Amino acid sequence: MRLSELWSLADAVFGPAYSRTLARELALTGLDSLTPAQALEAGVPPRDVWHAWCEEMSVPLDRRDGGDDRRMVPPPR
């Protein structure tokens, strides 16, 4: 997953404004309480950040594609 894909998914799932707020403020327990933005800056792959973010926000697996069933979202590791 590319970084641009992560942001596109975040905007589709959470909305453009809220996704940026979450990226700065939401502590991801699955990633040592880093925010999504901090995790990306620390070099965590976007795929892992995306799935940790979705887990933290209780996004079901079938909604992690942002409502576009043609979009390929790599499965969690």
Question: What layout of secondary structure does this protein have?
Answer:
Blueprint: H1 3-14, H2 16-25, H3 36-41, H4 46-56
Give a short synopsis of this structure.
The chain has 77 residues and is mostly helical.
Rounded to the nearest angstrom, the radius of gyration is 11 Å
- Amino-to-carboxy terminus distance: 13 Å
What is the structural class? Answer: mainly alpha
Regions with pLDDT < 50 over 5+ consecutive residues? none
How is the biggest beta sheet arranged? Answer: none
Give an overview in words.
Helix 1 packs across helix 2. The chain contains 4 helices and no strands. The mean pLDDT is 94. With 77 residues, it is an all-alpha fold. Helices cover 51% and strands 0% of the residues. The relative contact order is 0.21. The protein has one domain. It is globular and about 30 Å long.
Essential attributes:
globular; about 50% helix
